[in-house]
From TrEMBL:
Gene behind this protein: mgtE
Subcellular location: Cell membrane; Membrane
Taxonomic lineage from the root: Bacteria, Bacillati, Actinomycetota, Actinomycetes, Actinomycetales
Membrane topology: Multi-pass membrane protein
Organism: Flaviflexus equikiangi
Keyword Kinase on entry: no
CBS domain location: 142-204, 205-263
Protein known as: Magnesium transporter MgtE
This protein's record includes keyword Transmembrane: yes
UniProt keyword terms in alphabetical order: CBS domain, Cell membrane, Magnesium, Membrane, Metal-binding, Transmembrane, Transmembrane helix, Transport
InterPro entries named among the record's database cross-references: CBS_dom (IPR000644), CBS_dom_sf (IPR046342), Mg_transptr_MgtE_intracell_dom (IPR006668), MgtE_N_sf (IPR038076), MgtE_transporter (IPR006669), SLC41_membr_dom (IPR006667), SLC41_membr_dom_sf (IPR036739)
Quaternary structure and partners: Homodimer.
């Protein structure tokens, strides 16, 4: 049997756009028919917002649900906003409560309220339970639909519970074990149940649980889930009573969301929360303009420093030649340190208690880098210009690298201590700070060495 030709997403995008623009919905429906859920989701990510709802409405109901679940929360909210009320109700009702919470955070308040009221009483209660926890907490990301068992139950009784809830539970592969007061005392896997004798009690085969409270950071809980290789992590209230579970797929989704946000802010851009091609130009502009204004204000400080040493530059104009080299070296050194420490914090390797140790380590790293780069810089500048210029450049590089690495290393920790996203305090602000202070150091060293 001959294999089907491989479909090119770029060709599909071009033909889909042409069919949407032509208004031939019947031809567009036939065009979409051979696409699987993954390829359709990729197509939607590259279409403008105005076209997404049109394409989505033409998908068969089963495939539409599968495609919808593959999209980012931001894109899901865009599609919901563009669909008719009847279409939206069916899609929204088919989602798990934790997935609804992701979408509701992206929707305007009036539309979010209307979506909630369209649910059945049971589904609305489950969704409100999740939404009742603070933003950024794992309670917002857990699923309240789970299968649990008790220490006194037998394996046979537990398997009956699994079979009874196999269609409505988020997962059946990991079951929290409760005592008579609903406290989590263990976990048992489906593999454990299949291996055990039907008459054995759960207390005989359960394992020690790893749990997180619903008020813990969603990123910390997700990291715990993935680091330990757990399929599901029980989530408890402050009295250690079970309220939900965090599954491995939701944990990965949280980490991907957080890492995208961190990498965006480290580059001076607000996260888009939706695919690039599905983001309107207006939103691309707004995601960047605030940061550019902040950095422009910071750059004004650098200009102010230069004006303070205008007389020095007028006396020795060659000093101006090295300004880009020095501020570039300092900014890059600070960014490297900030990125390294921010990543270590995300992995749990570094915490607030390690501030002094990070300070010492980054000071030594910056000093070592400065000595190596300064020696090279002093040698080259001393040969091309004159030895005293080489000394100025060499000493400045040592000082700037040491300062930049130290500040870049401790700034994310200070940000965490005051409750600010460490990524916000890293690259853009560190670059601005190091530029201004590095120039001051440069001109003070130059005035001392050159006697001007």
């Amino acid at each position: 049997m001959p294999s089907q030709p491989r479909l090119d997403p770029s060709d599909i995008l071009v033909s889909t756009t042409a069919l949407v623009n032509s208004g031939d919905l019947e031809a567009l429906s036939r065009h979409l028919e051979p696409l699987d859920a993954g390829l359709t989701a990729t197509l939607l990510e590259r279409l403008p917002i105005t076209h997404q709802a049109i394409v989505f409405r033409l998908l068969p109901k089963d495939r539409a649900m599968s495609v919808f679940e593959r999209l980012s929360p931001g894109q899901q909210s865009d599609i919901i906003s563009g669909l008719q009320a009847a279409d939206v109700a069916d899609i929204f009702a088919g989602l798990d409560p934790d997935d609804r919470a992701w979408i509701l955070e992206e929707l305007p308040a009036a539309l979010a309220s209307r979506m909630l009221h369209g649910l059945t009483a049971k589904e609305r209660q489950l969704t409100n339970e999740v939404l009742g926890y603070p933003k950024g907490s794992v309670g917002r990301r857990m699923s309240p639909e789970y299968v649990s068992t008790k220490t006194t139950y037998t394996v046979a009784q537990t398997m009956e519970r699994v079979r009874a809830h196999v269609h409505d539970a988020e997962t059946i592969y990991t079951l929290p074990v409760l005592d008579e007061t609903r406290h989590v005392v263990g976990v048992v896997s489906l593999r454990d149940l299949l291996k055990a004798e039907p008459a054995q009690t759960i207390a005989e085969i359960m394992h020690k649980p790893a749990v997180r409270t619903a008020y813990d950071s969603d990123e910390d809980a997700a990291r715990a889930c993935t680091d330990r290789g757990l399929l599901a992590l029980p989530i408890v209230d402050r009295e250690n009573r079970l309220v939900g579970i965090l599954t491995i797929d939701d944990a990965v989704r949280i980490l991907e969301h957080e890492e995208t946000e961190d990498s965006s802010r480290q580059g001076g851009v607000e996260p888009l929360r939706r695919p690039y091609f599905a983001t309107p130009v207006r939103r691309l502009v707004t995601s960047r303009i605030v940061w550019l204004l902040v950095l422009a204000i910071g750059a004004a400080l650098t200009v102010q420093v230069l004006s303070l040493f205008e007389a020095t530059l007028a006396e020795v104009t060659a000093l101006a030649l090295f300004v880009p080299l020095l501020i570039g070296t300092g900014g890059n050194t600070g960014n490297q340190a900030a990125t390294t420490v921010t990543r270590a914090m995300a992995l749990g390797d570094v915490g607030l208690r390690d501030l002094a140790q990070v300070f010492r380590r980054e000071f030594m790293v910056g000093l070592s880098l400065g000595l190596l780069l300064g020696a090279v810089g002093a040698l080259i500048v001393g040969i091309v210009f004159e030895p005293r210029f080489g000394v100025v450049i060499g000493l400045t590089i040592v000082a700037v690298c040491t300062l930049a690495a130290t500040v870049g290393g401790v700034m994310p920790l200070i940000a965490r201590a005051i409750g600010v996203d460490p990524a916000v305090f890293s690259n853009p602000f560190i670059t601005t700070f190091v530029d201004a202070t590095g120039l001051i150091i440069y001109f003070l060293i130059a005035k001392t060495i050159l006697g001007i």
